[in-house]
UniProtKB/TrEMBL annotation:
It holds the Pfam family PAS_9. Residues 456-718 form the EAL domain. SUPFAM superfamilies: EAL domain-like (SSF141868), Nucleotide cyclase (SSF55073), PYP-like sensor domain (PAS domain) (SSF55785). PANTHER family: BIOFILM ARCHITECTURE MAINTENANCE PROTEIN MBAA, DIGUANYLATE CYCLASE DGCP. Residues 157-227 form the PAS domain. Residues 313-447 form the GGDEF domain. This is GGDEF domain-containing protein. It comes from Micromonospora inaquosa. Residues 231-282 form the PAC domain.
Length: 721
């Protein structure tokens, strides 16, 4: 094994020395925390190993280098007692054998190793003691410095608090848990109109507003009892002069050693903001024109009444609308109309002022009166009559004296059985009833009538979708020759296959379709479907030459495109024009002029037959009728019903028979075909035949039926069922 001479003149074995240092490093790392990496620890202990080897061979010998090694270990934070124990043991047991060459070991090696062990331990102990003393000194210095800093911070904090307390723009007050005011700043004193000295003699309870005193003292007691650490409220206070100041108050509890000691109140004057909020709220909840409560406030009040009503308590509303107000606006101007509304609003408020009922303007010329707590219907009825009387009194607006009337819808029911929206919906419906019945009157809500209106509205709403979904079907009623008994034509009658109500007749929805304008789309569908069915019959039974008769509503006849629509339906279906008959009511035909009259002539030019339905029910201008391109008159059902010959009224029966005879003669004189509707009995059919009526239609000849029933009848030769 090779050896070398180190710079100090001592021969050491390189590999063994490095191995010894590595074992030393691993031992100290295993036995305690070492802040150095393994490589750093090995380098440090290699240096110390060489220093110890040099100390063993030094002449004269001294153990002082071992003391430096012990101090170096402490300075490197290798201070674990077990690590020191391993170091001393290894120094005595293996150091000389592993680190020194055989020829370089002194004769007194054992004594020298022992001295080095003692020196290393002594140096380690002294260094550890010195470090402990140094740390204690630093801790003591830090403690004194911290105390000085705390005292300085406290003085600065007190100075800052005093500066903030004195110069703050918001009021700050400090009180004991008994409510006695300890100190306040100038802003607090100015806000309440006292001096600081006066407030120091006052208990906070003396400043509470009378309306808030009980609640505020309870809140203050909960605070000082420690139930809350802070509270914030908008609070009124009395000023020294008796006036009221609104404040935004924040109160905090100050504890000392866990016990409540003081309360700190910070108070900001928000009187102007509060007054602005009140003005804005008033504007938001009142009508700007009349000053009455508006729709929002009315519904808030109604909702509160319904929510807090006692069992069995009734609530009612009178929904009022001026009659003909639009005409006043249009003729006299909106400025005068607004002045009229102001006067009407004042009258309504005055007429119920003694009873405390709420009067609100809902918008436009609509007002509503909330009748709270009435026991029967007479109460809201009396209110409505008083309101109508107040409105009906002559109104002088500028140079005009106006006579105004109103209509009122009345609803009253137990508060527990309704909601605000349901109540107002019923009131609106009832107002519509009152207006429909005439001016200057009231109507009381009828649940059964309301249910019918709801059902009617549901049908109106469902009509467009039903047409899109194909829920409508056609039934056909035979029109039979009174002379031969054969079926010459059929009338197309629309039915609605409602998914919930079943098959609905036209009497329930045709009027609704006319009101909504859907009759144009529905009528076109009926026309095209009837032409398609008639084309199939013509193709299968060409000898029957069955005519299909389709009702044409007045609104359809007025459509500029009606001729094009009919022509397209014929072209699309392939039905010959002479097999299509269009029926118009007498009033629609007699009122035709201008473009509608030209449309009738253009339809006749297509080859289509035209018929006047329900003839005899309206005023007929016979000279005008003669100029129209009409082919057939359909006698109204009431005339035919009058010739039943059942013996109930013989005189009336003869009168109706003479009327029918005259109408038939008139139609034949105009070279028109005559069809009698509502033929129910064989006697009627015989008497109509005797009067030379051409064709008949009614349940005697067959009720309206689906197209396949007509097909079966044609296969049977077209005879009556």
């Amino acid at each position: 094994m090779g050896a070398r001479r180190n710079p100090g003149g001592v021969d050491v074995r390189r590999a063994e020395t490095q191995g010894y240092a590595a074992d030393w490093a691993r031992a100290v790392r295993r036995l305690g925390f070492v802040p150095l990496s393994l490589a750093e620890t090995e380098r440090l202990l290699l240096v110390q190993t060489i220093r110890l080897a040099q100390a063993v061979r030094a002449e004269p010998f001294s153990a002082r280098p071992a003391e430096e090694v012990g101090r170096a270990l402490v300075e490197a934070h290798l201070t674990e007692p077990q690590a020191l124990e391993w170091t001393l043991h290894a120094l005595g047991a293996t150091f000389g054998r592993r680190v020194l060459c055989d020829g370089d070991r002194p004769a007194d090696l054992a004594d020298r190793i022992a001295a080095l062990q003692g020196g290393l331990a002594a140096g380690f102990a002294r260094a550890l003691r010195d470090r402990t003393f140094s740390q204690q000194e630093r801790i003591a210095r830090s403690a004194w410095q911290a105390r000085d800093e705390v005292e300085q911070a406290l003085r600065e904090s007190e100075a800052r608090f005093r500066a903030v307390f004195t110069g703050a723009a918001i009021g700050i007050g400090i009180a004991g848990v008994d409510g006695r005011i300890i100190d306040v700043n100038q802003a607090f004193a100015d806000m309440l109109g006292y001096s600081i000295e006066e407030l120091r003699e006052i208990n906070v309870a003396a400043l509470f507003h009378a309306d808030d005193a009980a609640g505020m003292w309870e809140l203050y007691q909960e605070l000082v009892e420690g139930k809350h650490d802070a509270a914030r409220v908008e609070k009124r206070y009395y000023r020294k002069d008796g006036s009221v100041v609104w404040t935004d108050l924040a109160v905090s509890l100050i504890r000392h050693e866990g016990r409540p000691r003081f309360t700190v109140a910070m108070m900001e004057d928000i009187t102007e903001r509060y007054q602005l909020q009140q003005r804005l709220r008033f504007q938001a909840l009142h009508d700007p024109l009349t000053g009455l409560p508006n729709r929002t406030l009315f519904f808030e009040t109604l909702g509160r009444v319904l929510d807090t009503a006692d069992v069995g308590q009734r609530v009612g509303v009178c929904f009022l609308d001026l009659d003909g107000f639009k005409a006043i606006n249009d003729s006299l101007g909106h400025d005068l109309g607004d002045r009229l509304l102001v006067m009407i609003g004042r009258r309504l408020a005055a007429c119920v002022a003694d009873h405390g009922h709420l009067v609100a303007r809902m918008g436009g010329d609509e007002f509503v009166i909330l009748v709270d707590g009435g026991d029967d219907t007479d109460d809201p009825v009396a209110v409505a009559e008083a309101a109508l009387a107040a409105v009906a009194a002559p109104v002088h607006v500028g140079e005009h004296q106006l006579a105004v009337s109103a209509s009122v819808g009345i609803v009253q029911c137990p508060a527990s059985e309704t909601t605000a929206s349901e109540l107002m919906k019923a009131a609106d419906t009832t107002l519509y009833w009152a207006k429909a019945a005439g001016r200057g009157r009231w109507a009381v809500y009828d649940p059964e009538r309301g249910a019918r209106d709801i059902a009617r509205s549901a049908l109106v709403a469902g009509l467009p979708a039903a047409l899109d979904r194909g829920e409508f079907v056609l039934h056909y009623q035979p029109i039979v020759s009174l002379l031969e008994g054969t079926m010459l034509a059929v009338e197309a009658l629309v039915r609605w296959e409602h998914p919930e109500l079943g098959l609905i007749g036209p009497d329930r929805f045709i009027g609704l379709a006319e009101e909504t304008g859907l009759i144009v789309r529905l009528g076109e569908w009926v026309l095209r479907q009837a032409c398609a069915d008639a084309e199939r019959w013509w193709r299968e039974f060409p000898h029957a030459k069955l005519v299909v008769s389709v009702n044409l509503a007045a609104r359809q006849a007025d459509e500029p495109a009606i001729v094009d629509t009919v022509a397209d339906a014929l072209r699309t279906s392939g039905l010959p024009a002479e097999l299509l008959q269009l029926e118009l009511t007498e009033s629609a035909v007699m009122g035709s002029a201008g473009e509608p009259l030209r449309s009738l002539h253009r339809l006749a030019a297509l080859g289509v037959r035209l018929a006047v339905d329900d003839f005899g029910t309206g005023y007929s201008n016979l000279a005008y009728l003669r100029r129209l391109p009409i082919h057939c008159l359909k006698l109204a059902g009431p005339f035919v019903e009058g010739i039943r010959a059942d013996g109930t009224d013989v005189a009336a029966d003869h009168r109706d028979e003479r009327i029918v005879d005259a109408l038939v003669r008139l139609a034949h004189a105009l070279e028109l075909w005559v069809t009698a509707e509502a033929v129910e009995t064989g006697v009627q059919a015989e008497r109509l035949r005797a009067l030379r009526c051409d064709t008949g239609q009614g349940r005697y000849f067959g009720a309206p039926a689906p197209a396949d029933v007509i097909t079966a009848r044609l296969r049977g030769g077209g005879v009556p069922a």
